């Protein structure tokens, strides 16, 4: 969650479907209609950086944190209600259960784990956390396997072997951005180790 | 920043070797050294004592060397002396065909445990094979094969153990520094992310949950105790 | 939609980061995307005007005591404010990556020594401010290396030495060097047995070769 972290910035830009609970004029630009009004009940895809604040800020309250300090006992609803993004929806979760290694995580969402982590933190979603952690662990075995193989193979050649392995294995093309980093780190350490023995 | 990112994640094998070279090892010196200050050397090799002066050690160990009386010196120094044919290295007891065979038996019998090899077994054997080959009584190639077998069988167990990684702990009893070092980036990355997920949904109930997690790590090749996630970040 | 340009900028930065991760070569910086940055800044000024307007409206509404309006205006205010913050973060992340890469360049080139050899083509990718930054950061490194830390070669090789003494061959005449063990006259093609730490720098600079 570093402010300058590019992956974090990009993850923050992933879109989440949001239902407006209030009618707000002047926000039409969110929907490609500059100057227009967004009416209550409309569902729009908003970037996470916008959605996650609008979903917790209470329309009637003063404070920025949700939790009703509704002055004068009035409206405690937030501006929008976030809906589960497709990447974390039932279809994807079914695929996660079916075959973690076969799932093209990168196609589902390039920052899948980062997004899931946000969601878990926002909604204390134990179930989701457990499923994603399981997915992570199973895929990790596979990633490590490739790293070990790639490391041994890369002992001779100097660089860029990482790229050729990625090209040759469909699995490695399905890694999300974080997983790619794991693979890179693991493969590098394995390669250095196998080089040392020679 | 000045240290490349991959060296922040784990040690390079060369760094591991450097650390290992600081370990003590037993040698048989072939020469006798005397402090020059104490007067003339009775030894004929007056030239040698000039050379000793070039070594930047604090002195005592070198000065006490007596030919064919075993003594302990740092490995790097032993290798230097060896190079100049001024000593024989005493091969450690575990590095014989007999001991390695016994170790292999142990590794095969115990699916969920690692044999008690010294923490520097991989590095030390490699160095000695290369630089002190004539000090072994067993044939090097046979020893080499067994070291390779040990490496492979232990590696298999490590891979089995990784299936049971969790967010809190990992036991690495009897694994060597090189074995740990080459998987450290992977394990740290994975455990760190598991911990993040755990923390994200267990803000208040973190204490209660700890009890429930213990079973995850039992009966695996790698288990509990040292928090490598914490230690490797700060090395 | 606000923030889209900024997103483009971050994607560009991400690509730069990936390219530098992938290659073992020296750190490279692409051209500063001046146009995109300027357009994002334009958006930022627009958002700033919006925010000021909504803040004003809110005050007026508060005086009149009309609550529903203030709620709506708060939402409008928030949305604009968040768009502005997002743009700011993207711009900073872009610049931070470039700053980090410039730091790497400085270290790779051993501090200030690079500035002379740094050709115009190479730093045309940098803005004026970035060139200043690079220069000053390099100076900081040099200063640190010659100050209290002068005894440690901070930009020296990162591979631990295997031997204290090594054989070296002289590739280029380098004159006399003074070491603890006497004076060596480095004449091309001659060989010496020297302490590695005494000649580390000469090896790096290509005067000597380890054999």
UniProtKB/TrEMBL annotation, chain A:
Subcellular location: Nucleus
Keywords carried by this UniProt record: DNA replication, Nucleus
Major location category of this protein: nucleus
GO CC, alphabetical: GINS complex
Domain DNA replication complex GINS protein PSF3 N-terminal: 4-56
Residues covered by the GINS subunit domain: 89-196
Keyword Cell membrane on entry: no
One GO biological process term: mitotic DNA replication initiation
InterPro entries assigned to the protein according to its UniProt record, in alphabetical order: GINS_A, GINS_bundle-like_dom_sf, GINS_Psf3, GINS_Psf3_sf, PSF3_N
UniProt function note: The GINS complex plays an essential role in the initiation of DNA replication.
UniProt record similarity statement: Belongs to the GINS3/PSF3 family.
Quaternary structure note: Component of the GINS complex which is a heterotetramer of SLD5, PSF1, PSF2 and PSF3.
Protein's name in the database: DNA replication complex GINS protein PSF3
UniProtKB/TrEMBL annotation, chain B:
SUPFAM superfamilies: GINS helical bundle-like, PriA/YqbF domain
Any single Gene Ontology cellular-component annotation: GINS complex
Start and end residues of each stretch annotated as Disordered: 209-235
GINS subunit domain mapped to chain residues: 94-196
Domain annotation DNA replication complex GINS protein PSF2 N-terminal: ranges: 64-90
Subcellular location: Nucleus
Claim: Nucleus is one of the keywords in the record: yes
Pfam family, one: PSF2_N
Gene3D superfamilies membership: 1.20.58.1020, 3.40.5.50
GO biological process, one term: double-strand break repair via break-induced replication
Alphabetical keyword list: DNA replication, Nucleus
Family: Belongs to the GINS2/PSF2 family.
Subunit organization: Component of the GINS complex.
Protein name: DNA replication complex GINS protein PSF2
Organism, as annotated: Maudiozyma humilis
Classification of source organism: Eukaryota, Fungi, Dikarya, Ascomycota, Saccharomycotina
TrEMBL record, chain C:
Record-linked InterPro entries: GINS_A (IPR021151), GINS_bundle-like_dom_sf (IPR036224), GINS_Psf1 (IPR005339), PSF1_C (IPR056783)
Location relative to the cell: Nucleus
CDD domains linked to this entry: GINS_A_psf1, GINS_B_Psf1
Predominant location: nucleus
GO cellular component: GINS complex
Stretches assigned to the DNA replication complex GINS protein PSF1 C-terminal domain: 162-210
Listed SUPFAM superfamilies: GINS helical bundle-like
Pfam families in the record: PSF1_C, Sld5
An annotated GO BP: DNA strand elongation involved in mitotic DNA replication
Recorded superkingdom: Eukaryota
Family: Belongs to the GINS1/PSF1 family.
Subunit architecture: Component of the GINS complex.
Protein name stated in the entry: DNA replication complex GINS protein PSF1
Species per Swiss-Prot/TrEMBL record: Maudiozyma humilis
Species classification: Eukaryota, Fungi, Dikarya, Ascomycota, Saccharomycotina
